[in-house]
Amino acid sequence: MRAVEVSALGGPEVLRVVERPDPVPGEGQLLVRVRAATVNPADLAARTGQIPGGPVPPPFLIGWDVAGEVVGGDAGIPLGTDVVGLIPWHLSRGAIGAYAELVAVDAGWVVPLPDGLDPVAAATVPLNGLTAHRALDLLDVKTPTTVLVTGASGGVGGFAAQLALRRGHTVLACATHDDEEWVRGLGVHSVIPRGAGLDRAVPAVLDAVPLGGIKGDVVVATRPLPDQDHKLVLVEPDREALSGLVAALADGTLRTRVSETFPLEAAAEAHRRLESGGVRGKLVLTL
What we know:
By secondary structure, the protein is of the alpha/beta class. It is built from eight helices and 16 strands. Strands 3, 5, 6, 7, 8, 15 and 16 form a seven-stranded mixed beta sheet that branches. Strand 9 (about 145-150), helix 5 (about 155-165) and strand 10 form a beta-alpha-beta unit. Keywords: NADP, Oxidoreductase. This is NADPH:quinone reductase.
């Protein structure tokens, strides 16, 4: 099979399309022919070695989000089923990656794709959607309250704002400059330009950028915040939550956006595009 390999730690040029043996699914695993794999900032961090626990020695594979068709394995999902799921890359540390024609995944990592749902759109959900879901759980608020979401223009923040609304919260959302219209269209109660100061504390903060320094009775962040009391969200596979997320995407009650697609062999170009900034929506590799 063809796969994108990180040949050395460094810039996008270290990404190489290589031939690797087809993976063989083990007990409880499925073989998935990949149709779409999202390019995330976490992939850029892995490529440069800026990840918790220290860099992974090259060569290794990358990619968390996968959508495709089951073509092998015997783990309760029939052959030919379209699936979407999360590869817990922080655990596999490069042994498995979504930037490949085939992946062997644990059956608990994937869920069937709802009929008619575009695999490219579906592939944007697992990492960002499950992170947002888990972050809201960590806020641990028992009744609806006011939630401030930073980075609501992005993947985690955009999903978090929508999921907070579904839980009955009043949502204040920070938006990137010139992206306020998209964030307002998510249904949030108030849009705050990024960089604008907040003159009061709010009951709950989901710092998805993260900016740091925002006052809240409880603060959940996607990365460590020096010198601030907060909870750190760590994503993990969750079939029940993922099923709900992709079902909501399929019925139109959850929104995502894809900025651009790239073929597998243009993975380096996709990394350059993401690093250049100003991307509105997700970048997705298609096979």
